[in-house]
Amino acid sequence: MKYLCLIYEAEILYATMSREEGQAMMAEYGTFTQEVIASGQFIAGEALKPVATATTIRIRNGQLSVTDGPFAETKEQLGGFYLIEAPDLTDALRIAGRIPSAKTGSIEVRPIQVFN
Amino acid sequence: MPDPAQEGSGNGIHDFADSLYRSESRRVLATLIRLLGDMDLAEEALHDAFAAALERWPREGLPANPRAWLVSAGRFQAIDKIRRRARFDAVSAELADRIETEAAVERDEPPEGLEDDRLRLVFTCCHPALQPDAQVALTLREVCGLSTEEIAAAFLVSPTTVAQRIVRAKLKIRQARIPYRVPPFSDLADRLDNVLHVVYLVFNEGYLAARGEALTRSDLSAEAIRLGSLLSDLLPEPEVLGLLSLMLFQESRRMARSTPGGDLVLMDDQDRSLWDREMIRRGRDLVDRAFASRRIGSYTLQAAIAALHAEAPTHEATNWAEIAGLYEILRRADPSPVVELNRTVALAMRDGPEAGLEAIDAILSRGDLLDYHLAHSARADFCRRLGRREEARRSYSRALELVRSEPQRRFLEKRILDLDKPASFP
């Protein structure tokens, strides 16, 4: 089965990190990503630019509107994701629990809907 | 098994690895858990080993012993990985040293049977320090290879709930340092009791389907029987054989237990030609072996009772005297209100419904089984046979309030309706 691991954490954390801390975090992410690739369970994964770069689009009554930013202020923001292949939810959680940001933010794991 | 050599392509290897994963992954996992001492690490190593196999076997050819290759690949990749992680984590460095030292030591020792590792894992998963729900979930996942989602569907709970139980149980195993081993002889009987209890719980969940729409969930019963067979191969203690025998006798009636519409059929109304004779034969063989040991426990006694039912030509021609006698022994060996309840049914067949009613009222007046729907429906049944219609109606109604399975509810409703038909009184 496929699972999407959504990484939520406070962006402010990165803004206040020292250069060394930032590099250590990147190295840890690099190692983690290599491991998931090596285990054959990696499908895709990306980091997102800060939420300030977000653009939101919606259509209401046929009217298109484009606004900047997300529509709700939250303490943690979606910062990136991994799409993984795992035999079941427990195994997906095992992998998600090793995403470095699990220690500072939270990881939401969602099964991918399969349409038959 | 497919032969990848004949297909001579990456696809052949892929299919071979797939079928190998299905047939071998639980065995490989059990051994990796012993070698690495940690379930999560072992699970990770299992994925790594299969990924490495897919990459290397097409180039290097199939190893002579794929299972041993996977174990060794998983183990050494785990050591490498822990070393890499040691950069972020001091605990990992120690762990890697320990696993590596053990790996070196073990090369000089004779290799242990892989099946023993599955037995070790069963005892770990059924460790009494874990929550009962977690023991069941962990056993089904780690030993039987059911996915979290499959377990959730079988027990009618959410996958998140099952995953929580498993994750917490693994944490507990790690923190309490619950060992991966078959318990020493002094503890074996107690610990085996607990294992058998978990297996029977899984079976009954599949057999009785305590909640929900369907009368039975055969997948769980089949898993429990598979698990019982594995145990009886690895540890043929009398009670292990007794439990497997009991499950086979009960399972042999599956086809006869419900109508095509999913309604419950009691044993006295079942079409005995639908009973699975092969299962009954296996059950008989096992219960005889258990009796021959002269160490007779409660599962073996229950299997012996089930054998008498299974081999009787009709409900009336069943040897009720012997069944009542076996229940009497069982009641003394393993006293429980449910055993007493079952005994009342045999008493009623041997001595008449009056005797059954008297026995069941003795149980209820003690305050036992007041919330157990089968006690009230059995009582109702005795009253019905005695022609005490109003009392029967009250007891059926009480059972109806307590029942949670849809087919059993329909069955009780029908019984109440039938009370108003004079023809239903024999």
Q: In a few lines, what is going on in this structure?
A:
The complex is a heterodimer of chains A (116) and B (426). Helices cover 28% and strands 35% of the residues of chain A. Chain A has 116 residues and is an alpha+beta fold.
Structural account:
The complex is a heterodimer of chains A (116) and B (426). Chain A has 116 residues and is an alpha+beta fold. Chain A contains three helices and six strands, in the order E-H-H-E-E-E-E-H-E. The longest helix of chain A is centred in the N-terminal third of the chain and has 20 residues, at 19-38. The model of chain A has no long low-confidence stretch (mean pLDDT 92). With 426 residues, chain B is mainly alpha-helical. Chain B is built from 20 helices and no strands. The interface between A and B is medium-sized, with 18 and 25 residues.
Keywords:
heterodimer; A: 116 residues; alpha+beta; Alpha-Beta Plaits; 3 helices; B: 426 residues; mainly alpha; Serine Threonine Protein Phosphatase 5, Tetratricopeptide repeat; 20 helices; disordered N terminus
Radius of gyration from the alpha-carbon trace of chain B, in angstroms: 26 Å
Overall geometry of chain B comes to elongated
- Total strand segments of chain A: 6
**SSE sequence of chain A, one letter per element:** EHHEEEEHE
Task: Provide the number of structural domains of chain A.
Answer: 1
Structural class of chain A: alpha+beta
* CATH fold annotation of chain A: Alpha-Beta Plaits
